[in-house]
Amino acid sequence: MKYLGHLPADDPFFAYLRCDILPLLSLNASCPDFRVYQLPASHHVYLYEDQHSQARIIGKFFGGVPGLDPGAALRHMEREFNNLNHLRNIGFTGYPHYVVRPLGRNANLNKVLVEEFCYGVPLTDFIVNAIRRNARDALFQKLTALAYFLATLHNRTVIDNKVDFNKECEYFNRIMEQLTNAGRAGWEEVREFHQLKNQWRGRACMWEDQQVLVHSDVTPANILFGDGLWVIIIDLERMKSADRVFDLGRVVGELQHFFMQQAGDKWLAEPFIGHFLWEYACQFPDRDAAFAAITRRTPFYAGLTLLRIARNTWVEGSYSWQLRDEARKTLR
Question: Which residues are CB-neighbours of 46 under 8 A, at least 6 positions away?
Fold first, then answer.
């Protein structure tokens, strides 16, 4: 978190926070003084802290984000605002499953979404501490909490439509196109990945489940934990209807990535992966059948996650190759 200074009183966003947002928090808005901090995020995300009340507010700006034209930025802002409200409206407002409260959005102020600030420890910290400090029990406990949250989200939002696996194949194609455009995957490699994708497309299990709402971006930085089973969700921009295993495979792939990158061996993640999937399955009447069903589909989504990470510009070329190699093995 980087300190940037104070928000000027003549900034239009200052007036918006004072007149529209602080009253929602039942705070005296007569003369706030906001310190501004930049948060590490894919969007322009800032923390505003009023020195008088100590209130903290998050501003997430969609305008000016590379790759988002003004129309797309507006849609992203509205989508996340509506997604947050939808999950809160169906009960994700208290222990143990909490979705951050959206306080407002303003298209005229650089497409900003304003949210309450939530305290919590990101999943990233628990993974890193398990690797570097052997704090394994804490990671097992938090993966139990995350599995419980995801099972609750998925089971509460089932719809009467089967999974359309073609949509995930289209997403796979976009990832491969990005890898190709970045010069990270040659023609032969891309052709092999498409062959593997088509083999998965032909498996009946990939089409068998009902659609649910998935978080769709269960990266370790987007999941916060409090005490016990507290899970706090802060990013729902990409929520969609899909296969529940989309979320599970994302968590599996992220665990593999962290252990590959920081411990040099993705297999060290296996006890945590097995625990996470088994804990998810325990939320179903037939735990063994649920576990068998989700583990049949997990390799595709885990492999897709490894490819998704491999396309990032911050990933070194040699590690991108390693990720793609592990993705190939996983998809096989």
Answer: 4, 36, 37, 38, 39, 58, 59, 61
